[in-house]
Amino acid sequence: MRENAVKNIIFKMPHFYDLWSSRLHSLSFKNTRSDYLRSRIIILSTVLGILLILWIPFDILFLTSDQSIKITFARLFLGSFFFFLALNKYQFYSLRQIQLCIALLTLSLNIFYLYCLAVLDFPDSNLKYGYIYTLLPIIHVAALTIFPVTFKESLSLLSITAITQIFADSYADRLFAPENLAIYWLQCVLALMVIWSQVSKLHMLMRLYRQAILDPLTGIYNRRMLLRLGKKSMQECSQNDKPFSVLLFDIDKFKRINDTWGHSVGDKVLTGFTAFVQGKIRKTDLFGRYGGEEFILFLPDCPSDTAIKISNRMLTAIRELKLPIDIENQSLSITTCIGISTYSENDTLASMLERADLALYKCKHSGRDCSNFHPIDLQYENDERLKIAEKISIN
Asked: How far apart are CA 269 and CA 63, in angstroms?
């Protein structure tokens, strides 16, 4: 019972679970981290491949001919594998593939370690040159420092080296030898430093990522990241022949709220509206702040008729929404305009947003608190749009 209580307290700490596992990380952050990890894999694979080959002359010089030939072939094979990982950087795209790649890199180093020990007949400290190979696990642990990974991933990678080394020392019957115990102690200290470094890198990456992509007030995607993810989602829907719709929200008469109640109340309205919409959308939908009181909801795999139904349900629910403003226990009611557009062949994200924006102007011209769908074949003249804008400013 006490152990479960401690676990519950730990996992309720802010962001701890994000540092423990990547399961709850957003898709966009997973893509960002996979790109970051891929660049580290390329660097590490290239460096290790070069160092493995450059060490061959030392093996030829200090080992017997039979031992040096066997280990040389192993070095060339492993070096070729590392160069393959570095050159085929675009073959590993998703985070899961990147994680598998790091695991294969770690596993291959430990297989090389076991093979070399077997060729050298599991050397001990009396054989000075051969004993160097028994220290390879220290290098394996230190090399992992460059990866920003979670606690769970770090422990999994380090366990590969630990299990391999314990197996080798048990087979050589020197598991509890004094020099081995000293090495184990050194590796434990090194492993703790590696875990701290890896998780610190991940934490910093997460902080920078959140600052770069999230709106500081509402905590949802900012304009830059929203449009980037929306473009990618639209392209994926286009490639898979799936519909894609856009809902452009504008809170009605938001300036009047700021002028009447103050900007702090206006901020509460924005955060309350954001929380409401987030509670109504799917996990695959993309919602973010477009600017000021305008918000965008990207709806992948959503045809125009469904998008219209969704907007009507949103309008009804928003009318009934009561947003507390912390002033004499009062609450505000708001309404919105929603401009709608759906992807058509040869469409771009900019053209879809332009149609949704035109539909939004039509809503404002029609008295607000409504939605409007702009089909691809309907064109508004520029002078008509200016007239609509003039009428809005007059009203």
From this structure: 75
